[in-house]
Every structure is written in structure tokens, then in C-alpha cells.
Amino acid sequence: MRAKYFYGYNIVAAGFVIQAVCYGMLFTYGIFFKEFQAEFGWSRATISGAPSLCFLMGGAIGILAGRLNDKIGPRVLMVAASISFGLGYLLMSRMQAPWQLYVLYGVLVGVPFGVYDIVTLSTLARWFVRSRGIMSGIVKVGTGSGQFVIPLIATALIAAYGWRNSYLIFGAVFLVTLVAIALVLRRDPQGMGLLPDDAIDEPCGAGTGSPDPDVPLRAAVLTRQFWAICLAEFASFFCMLTIIVHIVPHAMDLGLPSATAAGVLATIAGVSMLGRIVMGTVNDRIGGKRSLMICFILLLCGLIWVQVAGEAWMLFLFAVIYGFAHGGFFTVVSPTVAELFGTGSHGVLYGIVLCHGNTGAAVGPLLAGRTFDVTGSYQIVFLVLTGVAGLGFVLIMLLRPLRGGGAGR
Asked: N or C: which end of the chain has fewer CB within 10 A?
């Protein structure tokens, strides 16, 4: 007899909150950026280096987190990550030197970044097959919600209490919240006597016309398709995280007030929620390859436009175009990995893909900060981002399905 309520929806809800908190706080770094400059006089390269280390740490730990999630499930991993995340922000309220920024943000906050996305999306991929794309989209709407709301809260808190007390408040609230949410997670439906998608005696993938393949880990990492996705993820993260870290300073350099510049960031987050839902639905219909191609085309359009955007309305239009692509990228990749290689080793495979993305996320903002320090402008930065995005588009355009697989269906 079918249960009245499918526990998989709890997994979706937990993932929504985790993503909202984790990536909402990621979006606040650009807002705290100017505060660090004003108080400490650090260069943009120095300040940009901390999120670069954060993403390198996330990428390094992500493969291990994916492997552990495949083996032991998400709860223990999430509790440990949440403690590290909360403590990192609590201790940043006492920060005085660059090395402290690198240790606290780069390591204590960076390690959880390597856990959150992999654990939530890899766990969800086991709970849903037919509706994996849309459910991933709903979880990633949590990211957009956090990225829309939390930077606005950060702006208000900084104005009222200063940046140190703001970090103290964030750290305490999110430490408690994330540990509580972690206890909701379960590895897979089979462990609770259920089937994916709340099915009744149906094979995994029934109704899709193309059940997930079952590609062993060793075989998957020897395919060109896998490494094409890894390099495309590097390209997309290189571009996206450079924008996230530097768009607020860039807008303020153009003369926009801090609140308006934060509004550009909030617009990206708001539109990204639409991109997550739409592209999640599109992914279920047309497959990962075509969905990723759409995202890269929109990213390229946004990057070309931002190079001529000199007024507030032009930056907000950029935020709309780019925000849709941003949301789509973060939604489509995990289902694409499952579509190509199945879910047996999804955690570690997605961890390797995300490691490449985090490496791009580490290199991009740091390179952009250094380039600005040398040239006094983001012009060269935007040109490089356009070229990298073009390379990512070509990699996905040339992606071919595995024999008997369904990528690009």
C-alpha cells in the first residue's frame, strides 16, 4: 500500500535549507569585501585569495565526501560540516590578519562547501529518478533563495551592527540550524523500505523510457565524456564565482551605491531561482547535454553584455541573463552525471566533477583580483571569462552519449 507521504520530500526540504544557508553565505562575501578593504587596507588579490582557498579545500574534500556519502550516508558528514561552517563564521568575527581570513574562511568554511552540494544532490539522486531534474531544481531554488535573502540581511546587519557582529550572528544561527537539518537526511529509500519516486514494485527508472545505466567507477573515469564534463564544470565555475566575488566591487567602481550594488547581486540570486526550476524541468525532458548548452549560451550572452554595461539598468539586465544561466548550471550537472553513469558511484563521480569546478572557482576570483590590482580595471577579466565560457560550450557541444546511454537524449 502506498504511503500517504513520501519521505523523499523531506530530503528535498532538507536540501533546500542546506543550500539556502551555504550558498546564501557564499554570496555575502562580495558585500564583506569592501568592509575588509576599509578596515585593513588589504589588496583585492589578498581578499580574493580566501574564497579561492575555500574552493580548493572544497574540491579536495569533495571527492572524499562523495565516497563517504556512497558508503555511510549523509547524516554524520553533514553534522561535522555544519559544526565547521558555523565555527568558521563565529571566529571570523575576531579576525585581525590575512592568515586568519585564510584559515577561517578558506579552511573551516571551505571544507563544508565540499560536502554540502555533493551530499544533498547525490542523496537526492538516489531518492528520485523520473523527477530527478525538477527535484534537483527545487533543492537548488534553496540556493537562489538564500542568495537573494541572506545578502540583503547581511547588508542590513552590517549597517546596524558592523561586520564583526554580523559574522557572529550568522555563525551562531547557522550552526544550530544546519546541525538540526542534518539529522533529517537518509542515504536512500531502500534503507527505509521504499523505492525511488515513491514507486510501487517498479524498476528504478520506470517511466523514463531510459533507466539509469550502471557504470562502474573505474570504467566511468576512463571515458572521455566524464572528463569533458569535468572540464566544462571548471569553465562554468571559473566564470560564475569570479562574477559572484567581483560584481559588487565592480558595480561600486562604476559609481553605484553599496545598496544598489548589493541589489545587482540579489537580482542574480532571484532570477537564478527561476533558472533552477526551468532548467530542472527542461533537463527531465531534453537531457543534460542540451540543457548545459543552453546554460553556456546564456552565460556567453551575459558576459558579452557586461563588458558594455556602464549604468545601473544595464547591470541589472546582465544580472537577469547571467542569473538564469547561473541557476541552470547548478541544477543540471548532478542529474547529468547520474544520467550518464548511474547512481552506484554518483557521490564520488560528482565529487570529482565538483572538484574541477571548485578549482575553477578558486583560480577565477584570485586571477581577477590580481588582474584588477595590476590594471585598475575588470576589462581584461571579462574578456578572459568570455573565452573560458566559450571553451566550456564547445566541450558540451561535442559531448556524445555512452554506448547504450542517454546523455543528450
From this structure: N
